Amino acid sequence: MLLSELSRSGTDIGIVLEALNRISGGRMVMNWEEIASGGNPYVVMKNSNIPGKSVMEIPGLVFGDKNKPVSRIGVGMTLTESMIELASGMKLDLLVVHHPVADAASSGGVPFADYLPLYDLAVIEMHEAFHGLHPGLTFLHGHHKLITDISFGGLPGNVLHKGIALEGLTTVGGLMAHMASHAGREIDVDLLEAERAIRGEPALQEATVANPPLCLSGTRDCPVRHILHFFPHTGFSLQHMEQALLMYPETDTIIASISRVRENHPIVELARQRGLNFIVGNPHSVEIMENGLPLACALEKLLPDTEIYLLRERMTAVPLSGIGHRGMVAYGREMAEKHLVAGPSSRTVSIY
Predict the structure, then answer these.
(1) Contact 125/62 with Cβ under 8 angstroms?
(2) Could you say which of 3.40.1390.30, 3.40.50.300, 3.20.20.70, 3.40.50.880 is the CATH number of the domain covering 3-130?
(3) Which end of the chain is more exposed for a tag (fewer CB within 10 A), N or C?
(4) Can you tell me which family this protein belongs to (predicted)?
């Protein structure tokens, strides 16, 4: 039976999982026995060797009941308490998030079991199971991907794309203009300016606007053709870059996106030494459009009887001295001075 036929009699989480399994080409965990057996290569541990802070990625249903009816689904990048509260206000049934979730870390410091049932919310995660499924991220950065390795150097999640510039994009400047226009950067700039004016906070900063595409090696007039595209936060190292350049010696341009590197990073120095262009592209805050939007559209196509929402968070920063709401500033300073820095003897007893 087709997913569209199943959905006519009412969609549940089990049907959503089937849809995601189709989208991912069979990568989803459909039964928890797959985790114990080690049979799913997309179930991986992420660990910086900080005691108690590792997390297991489980591309599947993390919290909830497979038989739960679903009519409103939110697709997001990273589960946070803000997303949970938005889902509550919108009366969503299910959150499908890209990044792995973890008790308390993803839910306001409390266990899922104490928080999510309040709003009758279920959660599915994907991450590694979604990597490499579509060429959109490379298209948005101005090239056709020819080869993709989602475990470059044997490191799960260490994605490397080998690509060739899109027709008509022949220079570094052309690539960068393509990135800015396709990401709708001008909207983010206008939105930030409006928010600054409304809040009375001219120094307000926002993640996407603060991280524009940059050229760290070469000039905007330099020609581009053969591209290597990597993501620094996945563990991609200088040794990985040297290996990639041995494999693809025709490379003239390197792109780093989602995360970025600084001007003095060893990989940038390597690019300069070899006369290669080096561009940093869209930051992580844009991935909700790069990866989240195609996933949401695919779910909408397969589950026509459900409402699909794209959940996009904005991260802003303002100097303490520049906060526009003076009443809240006065509140913050009073709490700090009377209860936080004055010493234990001046504090009131709190049960929370």
Answers:
(1) yes
(2) 3.40.1390.30
(3) C
(4) Belongs to the GTP cyclohydrolase I type 2/NIF3 family.
pTM over 0.70: yes
The residue type found at 333 is R
pLDDT digits (tens, 9 = 90+) for 191-234: 999 999 999 999 999 999 999 999 999 999 999 999 999 999 99
Single-letter amino acid code for the residue at 281: G
Query: What is the per-residue pLDDT for 7?
Result: 43
Per-domain residue ranges for the chain? 3-130, 136-284
Q: Which amino acid is at 123?
A: V
pLDDT band at residue 4 using 50, 70 and 90 as cut-offs: very low
User: Following DSSP, what letter does each residue of 137-164 receive, concatenated?
Assistant: HHHHTTEEEEEEETTGGG-TT--EEEEE
**Architecture category of domain 136-284 in CATH:** 3-Layer(aba) Sandwich (3.40)
pLDDT digits (tens, 9 = 90+) for 283-310: 999 999 999 999 999 999 999 999 999 9
Strand partners, 164: 144, 226
